[in-house]
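User: Could you go from structure to sequence for me? I need the amino acid at each position, not a summary. Structure tokens:
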């Protein structure tokens, strides 16, 4: 089952590193447009950072929808990932503009999957991440067993603290809506700088 999982690497910050990650055959590359993040692309990112052949994901937290649309056009984003308190209407507006929308939900043991129901028609994917104050990139896992409570029809990406040694556990999940994994801080030498060997090994193992 995991052979077909989409591999998204998030928090790309450096052009050369992005080129190396891209060469591994990943499916999606994520770029963070959220100032407080250690992986923020910056106010004046290197133009070469976005010159990728891989589909690009712009990651936002509570950003104005029209600002998102402008940046998506400027940087040729095909996907938008929303990590804040964006409502279904905002998600639907962006989707109706031709963008593929991932809506992130912060997970802990008290999360109620009924929360996702209103978003079903307005997004393409959910992204289940560990609940923290930082809106992602924490390096912490949530209890993956709670995914058994998700019975929706929207496919999801698994996020939150995934590391090089998690291949076997991911393969055991067997959830019919698991569409991909979101890799970030568990594969870094420093914020935004991905360790190519760790990523290469993980990708080879997950696709066996």
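Assistant: Here is the amino acid at each position, in order:
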């Amino acid at each position: 089952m995991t052979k077909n999982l989409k591999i998204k690497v998030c928090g790309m910050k450096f052009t050369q590193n992005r080129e190396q990650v891209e060469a591994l055959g990943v499916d999606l590359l994520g770029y963070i447009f959220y100032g407080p993040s250690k992986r923020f692309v910056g106010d004046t990112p290197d133009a070469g950072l976005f010159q990728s052949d891989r589909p690009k994901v712009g990651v936002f937290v509570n950003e104005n929808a029209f600002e998102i649309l402008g940046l998506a056009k400027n940087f040729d984003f095909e996907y938008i990932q929303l990590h804040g308190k964006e409502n279904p209407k905002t998600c639907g507006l962006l989707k109706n503009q031709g963008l593929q929308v991932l809506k992130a939900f912060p997970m802990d043991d008290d999360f109620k999957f009924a929360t996702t129901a209103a978003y079903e028609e307005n997004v393409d994917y959910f992204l289940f991440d560990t609940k923290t104050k930082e809106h992602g990139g924490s390096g912490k896992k949530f209890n993956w067993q709670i995914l058994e409570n998700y019975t929706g029809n929207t496919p999801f990406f698994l996020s939150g603290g995934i590391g090089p040694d998690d291949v076997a556990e991911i393969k055991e999940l067997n959830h019919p809506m698991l569409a991909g994994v979101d890799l970030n801080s568990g594969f870094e030498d420093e914020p935004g700088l991905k360790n190519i060997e760790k990523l290469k090994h993980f990708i080879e193992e997950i696709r066996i």
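One structural detail worth keeping in mind: The helical segments are 15-22, 65-75, 88-96, 167-171, 196-206.
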